[in-house]
Amino acid sequence: METLRHIVLFVHLIGFAVLFGAWAVQAFGGKRQFATIMEYGLLIAGIAGLALAAPWGLPEGAEPNYIKIGTKLVVLVVIGALVGSGLARQKRGEKITPAVFWLVGILTALNAGIAVIWR
Fold first, then answer.
1. What pTM, to 2 d.p., does this model score?
2. Dist CA 7 CA 89 (whole Å)
3. Beta carbons within 10 angstroms of residue 3's beta carbon
4. With contact defined as beta carbons under 8 Å apart, do 76 and 42 qualify?
5. In this structure, are residues 71 and 111 in contact, taking their beta carbons and an 8 Å threshold?
6. Is residue 38 within 8 Å of residue 80, measured between CB atoms?
7. Whole-number Å distance between alpha carbons of 33 and 83
């Protein structure tokens, strides 16, 4: 069961890597717009994160940190809202404000940092 949990964790990290990687390509490529693949990375990270929130495969006596899980979920929802609204604006031909674009990258890095640093 622990091996399956590690596989789900790996998939979760791949989701964030896809999201952050697509953001970084846009940020340092000069376009500074959202790509559809960001939504896929967000979806992968979200579904795998919810699977990790379930109390299966934990060592004996360990309990999930529900405050950490809730914090990561709130950050993920905010990222989703920003990316979704940004993509909608792009479809209408409008530009994304730089603050929203950079906030997505910062929040994505923050979410990964919460996962690694917060015990």
1. 0.91
2. 36
3. 8
4. yes
5. no
6. no
7. 10
CA angle at residue 101 from 95 to 103, to 5 degrees? 145
Sign for the pseudo-dihedral over CA of 27, 117, 40, 85: negative
Query: Phi and psi of 42, rounded to 5°?
Result: -65, -45
Distance CA 58, CA 60 (A): 6
Q: How far apart, in Å, are the Cα atoms of 7 and each of 10, 57, 106?
A: 5, 11, 26
CA atoms within 13 A of residue 105's CA, in its CB half-sphere: 16
pLDDT in tens, 8-23: 999 999 999 999 999 9
Q: Are 33 and 88 in contact (CB under 8 A)?
A: no
* Rg, Å, the chain Cα set: 15
At residue 59, does pLDDT exceed 90? no
